[in-house]
# Entry
Amino acid sequence: MNLVRAHILVCGGTGCTSSGSEKLITEFETQLSRVGMADEVKVVKTGCFGLCALGPIVIVYPEGAFYSRITPENVKEIVDEHIVKGRIVKHLLYDESVKDEEIMPLNDTNFYKHQMRIALKNCGVIDPENIDEYIALDGYKALGKVLTEMTPEQVIDIIKQSGLRGRGGGGFPTGLKWDFAAKQPKGQKFVGCNADEGDPGAFMDRSVLEGDPHSVIEAMAIAGYAIGADQGYIYIRAEYPIAVNRLQIAIDQAKEYGLLGKNIFGTDFSFDLEIRLGAGAFVCGEETALMTSIEGKRGEPRPRPPFPAVKGLWGKPTILNNVETYANIPQIILNGVEWFNNIGTEKSHGTKVFALGGKIKNTGLVEVPMGTTLRTIVEDIGGGIPNGKKFKAAQTGGPSGGCIPASLIDVEIDYDSLISIGSMMGSGGLIVMDEDSCMVDIAKFFLEFTVDESCGKCAPCRIGTRRMLEILTKITDGKATMKDLDNLKLLAHSIKASALCGLGQTAPNPVLSTLQYFEDEYIAHIVDKKCPAGVCKNLLQYKIVPEKCIGCSLCARQCPVNAISGEIKSPFVIDQSKCIKCGACMSACKKQAIVKE
Amino acid sequence: MKSLAELEAIRNKTINAMNIRKDGENGIRIVVGMATCGIAAGARDTLNAISEELAKRNVSHATVSQTGCIGMCRLEPIGEVLEPGKEKVTYVKVDREKAVRIVNEHIINNKPVVEYTIGAVEK
Ligand SMILES: Cc1cc2nc3c(=O)[nH]c(=O)nc-3n(C[C@H](O)[C@H](O)[C@H](O)COP(=O)(O)O)c2cc1C
Ligand code: SF4
Ligand code: SF4
Ligand code: SF4
Ligand code: FES
Ligand code: FES
# Structure
């Protein structure tokens, strides 16, 4: 019998995979065989560690050495030095994890210190393709407990008392939803999991499925027992091949162990799961559209009521929850209501996973207790804004949400605080913007997204959002009037009130919220014909300052459209009618004589 | 899966192997000097002996790893036992048999094998 005395964890999340972590795994195996240690050192492919910006990530235990940005060339060095001789390769370590020449526990680094991992508990810890590792860390114990010790009513009571709210966007109390479905007459019912994750910039659900797929499977079985369903569907977008693959492996392993299938834990309860692939339309994340899509029809929303809990898939009572919502369930069952109620704020219990993106140093995946301030997320966990720029705002809730301006950076984030400042939790995308971001341009970006994704079924959304986008384009082109701004607001409110589904109802939010905090920027575009952040190209002018220009002609030679002319040794000028605003001249000028305004 | 006991059995089978991944957890660390002279003196065999014994006895509160030059080549193979809150214990000239005793008496029963320590040998 041999003891595996070291584990090399290599991140197999999408981020690190795209920066080449698969190659690292084979290289580690090759190098370990070369030194004859393949038996005593185990290479484990895990899910995301969260610090995707520094990927590929490798952690070596028992020392807990956190290596970042590892290339196949580094692997030999790690094996020869660290594994064979026990000398940690300092120059490859994540710099924040070293203090006074010693490795600090990862949980003491700024990135991890403020985090609390419930949904991501096993991500980056276990091998997601090995059910035994999930079981070793108490996996399927909650399902066992529920099936052998509790009635469905007791399960629903616990979820209700925990105050768990849906992590997919709306924040609806999960226990109540289950209760509605459970109270429907006995018969065929379904459990659904929403893994559509359409919000641009979001990858929380993908990471959970890639790093810990069994937690979702276990939770869905628990939900099935609670409401009286024997069949579940996981709706996941086909663009997530790694997640789909691991999920399928996990389902197969669970079936093999009899944790899915007939008479689980020797009880009367049977439950099965199937994956359904979505084509990646944003609207298919909306619950009624998702269900029509699972039924094999075109994914279009339908009016509610009837709610899915009453009439869902194939007209049968159905509950639909988000991936992250499910990932919380086994932990609540195992640790109890009181534990969960002590985490977070009064009305939002537990944690929330965010995908940090945009102008931030540590882009990646973070999980924090509800009530953590935006400042902690941006400055401590996120490591601040790169290049010494100033924080301007953060967008939460993606195309359905809004922005939090710098003045509100100390807001404690939970469902209700975000609503009260005109944004929303959404599924957890958090995009940071610095002083160089134009808020009108941001609003336009999200609206372009919703216009593209509108399914076209109802007029307010199909026509209204398009009209809004036209006005925004006029504004960023410098062709709008204040009358247009009034129309923009009117349209926004009427679409919100009359669109059929959540996509249309929330589409105006990014515009309304940037208007609430940055109306002056809109006005600058409209009245002064200026983009204060210098983003909107059509409002920019490149100009040569005659006092600074030495007439060297460097700029003129760079200009792709010959817009610059002049005589050597006297100031040059830019012909604005020809200039295409490429900026080439500005970088060419050695005298900083060219300005953008 | 027919019962909770069956689940528990799978758990127990894997949990020891996973303990190694606990971050900053304060278990016992055994380190073996594995620089050039250590390897020449048979440190590789010592390390294997310790690993095997830990596995055989199902020890989950100790990890074994290697380190570089400890600085006393003539006493190799050298093994150190580091336990939070306690003095480091250094064992010298650790062969297979000594390794087995160290694991059983020191790691499992918490009684350092004084006669193998550097203090005793150097006298
Ligand atoms: C346009 C639109 C897109 C949505 N996309 C998602 C999604 O990608 N993932 C998700 O979990 N919920 C999404 N939702 C919310 C779902 O309709 C539903 O509320 C949610 O899946 C319920 O699960 P929860 O209560 O666990 O959050 C979307 C809603 C709308 C209106
Ligand atoms: S609001 Fe938009 S996405 Fe929703 S049903 Fe209407 S057109 Fe389709
Ligand atoms: S911005 Fe580009 S197109 Fe305009 S003057 Fe400079 S180089 Fe020419
Ligand atoms: S490169 Fe600068 S200094 Fe030279 S001609 Fe152009 S603007 Fe004048
Ligand atoms: S994908 Fe590797 S750390 Fe996120
Ligand atoms: S090389 Fe072994 S003690 Fe120095």
Summary: Residues 35 and 68 of chain B are 5 Å apart (CA to CA). Chain B has one domain: 22-121. The first strand of chain B starts at residue 28 and ends at 33. Residues 22-121 of chain B form a domain with the Glutaredoxin fold (CATH 3.40.30.10).
